[in-house]
């Protein structure tokens, strides 16, 4: 006897598909089998029909029938995916609160024990508990109070008074700087559309902390899941969601300063030697895992790094502000091709100067806009450069080194130095932009 046509069901089929084309289409649609067309041998078992779908007493004898027959127009309705399970945020939240209360009852010896008063530096409001513990509902809910709800080893509250830990894990100097970054993402971060299911067991502060730790230390998902007491799926869901969210919010900020601001914050050494400098640019490469596609291997292979990479251009003002981050391209792309695809020619004003390395030989692109390119001089067949030009190139190199330091600061986020997994390569442009923006929150480029 043929087996049941429902996917995953191994029972013998009993009921043939109806001959009525309309009713037959309903049966085929109900079993959710892709591109399935029932034949004369296709059958379904009795487990997919309710008792009310069968004919009860015989119309002739008035007694229950020995053989079960389906009523006319019956459609199967019992399937593994038709089980009604509430997935609303309210029900998930209530189940999580019940589990949390059970854990609290287990780890706390008694409810009547005295609770220590919060320190004077904590700017949070803690509501009193009224009634039995089953009816506990905090009257005031904030980011700070919810950050203590996780049961992992690491949390934002645990690092609150430890600036060394904040700097080690996030790259920011102190807890107040971390909260400043979080404030730039508020209140939108309280209503995120997650890539997967909605995250309710990790507070907003800890979600940002997980994202920054992933960028700064590039820990595996398993390690972060162990430290925060959550699943690996939740870690991946948080990271992808927050990278996209931070990029969408911070990309709305115009980080290209006006010419007056660049001149105001320009160091004196630049004002003496290169007063018209608007931006210093250089390219950087991020290693990636070798793609399986031969075409992708060829496009991403860097002859400079001798491995597969993605390449991008970063620009900074003479004062040290990262003011331009390009999209990421395959490692085989040249500096000129990145410049041609960039928006620098429209962003710079007439009379501006761009400081770059020797590889940016793009004077012909910017000449029509009266924008000069400051790069070291080429030999052009000569055996030695003039002494005056050598001194000029040394001065240029001493100023251009600032962009190298800024890129080095950005690469203190280890995700930009480690091989990006195939899962993160599509996010490379956004990851680089978020790391660059995090560097703009730093107080200085060097110690």
Automatic annotation (TrEMBL):
Superkingdom of source: Eukaryota
Molecular functions per Gene Ontology: DNA binding; zinc ion binding
Domain THAP-type: residue ranges: 1-79
Keywords, in A-Z order: DNA-binding, Metal-binding, Zinc, Zinc-finger
Cofactors (names): a divalent metal cation
Pfam families: DDE_Tnp_4, HTH_Tnp_4, THAP
InterPro entries: HARBI1_dom, THAP_Znf, THAP_Znf_sf, Transposase_HTH_dom
SUPFAM superfamilies from the UniProt entry: Glucocorticoid receptor-like (DNA-binding domain) (SSF57716)
Presence of the UniProt keyword Transcription regulation in the record: no
Descriptive protein name: THAP-type domain-containing protein
Record organism: Parnassius mnemosyne (clouded apollo)
Higher taxonomy: Eukaryota, Metazoa, Ecdysozoa, Arthropoda, Hexapoda
């Amino acid at each position: 006897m043929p087996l049941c046509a429902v996917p995953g069901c191994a029972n013998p089929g009993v009921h043939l598909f109806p001959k009525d084309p309309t009713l037959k289409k309903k049966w085929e649609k109900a079993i959710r089998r892709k591109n399935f067309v029932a034949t004369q041998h296709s059958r379904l078992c009795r487990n997919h029909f309710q008792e009310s779908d069968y004919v009860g007493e015989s119309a002739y004898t008035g007694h229950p029938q020995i053989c079960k027959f389906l009523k006319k127009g019956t459609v199967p309705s019992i399937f593994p995916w038709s089980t009604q399970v509430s997935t609303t945020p309210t029900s998930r939240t209530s189940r999580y609160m019940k589990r949390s209360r059970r854990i609290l009852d287990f780890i706390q010896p008694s409810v009547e024990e005295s609770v220590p008063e919060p320190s004077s530096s904590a700017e949070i409001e803690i509501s009193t508990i009224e009634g039995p513990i089953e009816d506990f509902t905090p009257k005031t809910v904030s980011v700070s109070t919810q950050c203590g709800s996780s049961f992992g080893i690491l949390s934002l509250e645990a690092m609150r008074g430890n600036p060394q830990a904040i700097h080690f894990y996030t790259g920011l100097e102190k807890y107040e700087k971390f909260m400043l970054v979080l404030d730039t993402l508020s209140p939108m971060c309280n209503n995120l559309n997650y890539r997967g299911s909605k995250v309710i067991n990790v507070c907003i502060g800890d979600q940002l902390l997980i994202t920054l730790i992933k960028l700064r230390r590039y820990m595996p998902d398993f390690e972060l899941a162990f430290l925060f007491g959550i699943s690996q799926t939740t870690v991946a869901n948080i990271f992808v969601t927050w990278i996209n969210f931070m990029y969408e919010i911070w990309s709305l900020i115009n980080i290209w300063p006006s010419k007056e601001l660049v001149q105001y914050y320009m160091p004196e050494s630049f004002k003496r030697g290169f007063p018209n400098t608007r931006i210093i640019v250089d390219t950087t490469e991020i290693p990636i895992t070798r793609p399986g596609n031969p075409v992708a291997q060829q496009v991403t292979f860097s002859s400079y790094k001798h491995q597969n990479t993605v390449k991008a251009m970063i620009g900074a003002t003479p004062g040290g502000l990262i003011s331009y981050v390009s999209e990421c391209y395959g490692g085989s792309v040249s500096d000129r091709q990145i410049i041609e695809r960039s928006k620098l020619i429209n962003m710079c004003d007439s009379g501006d100067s761009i400081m770059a390395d020797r590889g940016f030989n793009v004077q012909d692109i910017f000449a029509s806009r009266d924008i000069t390119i400051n790069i070291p001089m080429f030999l052009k067949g000569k055996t030695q450069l003039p002494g005056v030009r050598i001194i000029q190139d040394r001065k240029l190199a001493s100023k251009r080194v600032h962009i190298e330091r800024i890129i080095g600061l950005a690469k203190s986020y280890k995700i930009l130095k480690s091989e990006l997994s195939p899962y993160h390569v599509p996010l490379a442009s956004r990851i680089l932009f978020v790391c660059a923006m995090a560097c703009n929150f730093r107080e200085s480029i060097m110690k």
